[in-house]
Amino acid sequence: MAVTETVQIGPNEVAVEREHRGFHAPQPGAPMFDYMIDIETTGTNPEENAILQIAAVRFNRHTKEIDHKFFDRCLMVPSGRYWSEDTRDWWMDKPTVLGPILQRAEPAETVIRAFWEWVAAGPSICPRAFWGKPTTFDYNFINSYFRQYGLMQPFHYREAVDLNSYLLGKGHENRYEYWKTIENVGEAHNALNDCLYQIRAVFNA
């Protein structure tokens, strides 16, 4: 008689035969197809404003593991893109965050190509999931830069996961109160800190 045990598959607990367990549920060390991505920018228009910092962290939302080979690079403002003055004023109140970003800035094309290569080096068996808070901001900016520098978009738009919607689906109707329960990771508005903070929110949802 086959021996069964319960495994967690997404949000559901399912009884499967032990010998087939590995086919149904991610195990420790499983591939990481989830990518939490956060950017800092000079404004809110993805076609005209610029990205100042891109950070990304691979993770597995089922096993609650993260890949510590983070991506974290800063970008110069390329020709044709500009600062929104209200955003510049907003950043002026955060010199301890903005200063290191500007000091680490590299040519935009160099960074966006390095980011593409970092994404491509990850697992490719399953579609990569682009996580953003919200996707309408981060995804559109990243997509605009890929187009500008002639790079294929490695994240299909159908695989973009909006973190705000995910939390609503998990029953967190008052997202603002939920975020207060998540421990901060370093100083806010550093894109890498924000990625790790947002992953904590996913794992605790």
Would you mind describing this structure in some detail?
By secondary structure, the protein is an alpha/beta fold. It is built from 8 helices and 9 strands. It has helices at 21-24, 85-92, 95-103, 108-120, 135-148, 163-169, 175-179, 191-204, and strands at 4-9, 12-17, 34-41, 51-60, 65-66, 71-75, 105-106, 129-132, 160-162. Strands 3, 4, 5, 6, 7, 8 and 9 form a 7-stranded mixed beta sheet that branches. The protein has a two-stranded antiparallel sheet with strand order 1-2. A hairpin with a 4-residue loop joins β4 (51-60) and β5. The chain is globular, with a radius of gyration of 19 Å.
Summarize the structure.
By secondary structure, the protein is α/β, with parallel strands linked by helices. Helices cover 36% and strands 22% of the residues. It contains eight helices and nine strands.
Strand content: 15-25%
Please tell me how large the radius of gyration is: 19 Å
Contiguous runs where pLDDT drops below 50 for at least 5 residues: 7-14, 16-27
Rounded to the nearest angstrom, the distance between the terminal CA atoms is 37 Å
Largest sheet: 7 strands, mixed
SSE sequence, one letter per element:
EEHEEEEHHEHEHEHHH
Q: Mean of the pLDDT scores?
A: 87
Number of helices: 8
- The total count of strands amounts to 9
Helix content: 25-40%
Rough outline = globular
Structural class: alpha/beta
